[in-house]
Amino acid sequence: MKVKAEIVKTSAGLMMSAEGLLLKLPCSDFRDPNNPGAAFARLLKRRMTVCEVSKPLLLDDLQEPTLHKILFSAGHLTNTKLLVVDGSVEFYGKITPGGFNNEPVRMFIQENGYLDVTPKIVYYNDKISLIPTFLLDVSKPSENH
């Protein structure tokens, strides 16, 4: 999901964040459709998220770019709100990337003004059992932007 992102210069340096609707899925997709919030319990308890950032890795000897995964930890998830509206689960929050490998995230936000945020979903019997973290994909701008 495309989430509007910004970079703000502070006395401590550059602060990046993306805030808004992070996920919207039907309640029927969850293992317990009467309590879909249970799938978010670990994520909400930690209030921290480990994010995987994908970006193209360009090598001189390759004709086409390959996808390179970068991991960074200490991404903060704050201002969270979980709602059930008309049979759908809506999860809102603010993701603040952190750590030492966040240069690709900063560059992507500067170029595009948003982040592609995708939940990492664990399934049990084809139903959503757990959403432990979110993935940020900075490999390329989405076609709808």
Task: Please describe what this structure looks like.
With 145 residues, this protein is mostly beta strands. It has helices spanning 41-46, 103-112; strands at 2-10, 13-26, 48-57, 66-85, 88-96, 114-124, 127-137. The chain has a seven-stranded mixed β-barrel. The chain contains two helices and seven strands; from the N terminus they run E-E-H-E-E-E-H-E-E. The chain has one domain (2-137).
Summed up:
The protein has 145 residues and is mainly beta. The chain contains two helices and seven strands. The longest helix has 10 residues, at 103-112.
Name the descriptors.
mainly beta
What does the secondary structure layout of this molecule look like, with pairings?
Layout lengths: L1 E9 L2 E14 L14 H6 L1 E10 L8 E20 L2 E9 L6 H10 L1 E11 L2 E11 L8
Parallel strand pairs: 3-7
Antiparallel strand pairs: 1-2, 1-6, 2-5, 3-4, 4-5, 6-7
Q: Average pLDDT value?
A: 81
Q: How many strands, which pairing sense, and closed or not: the largest β-sheet? A: 7 strands, mixed, barrel
Taken as a percent bin, the fraction of beta residues is over 45%
Continuous helix count? 2
- The side-by-side strand order for the widest beta sheet comes to 1-2-5-4-3-7-6
Distance between the termini: 12 Å
Order of helices and strands: EEHEEEHEE
Secondary structural class: mainly beta
Q: Over all CA atoms, what is the radius of gyration?
A: 16 Å
Number of strands: 7
Task: Provide the number of structural domains.
Answer: 1
Helix share bin = 10-25%
Any idea what the shape is? elongated
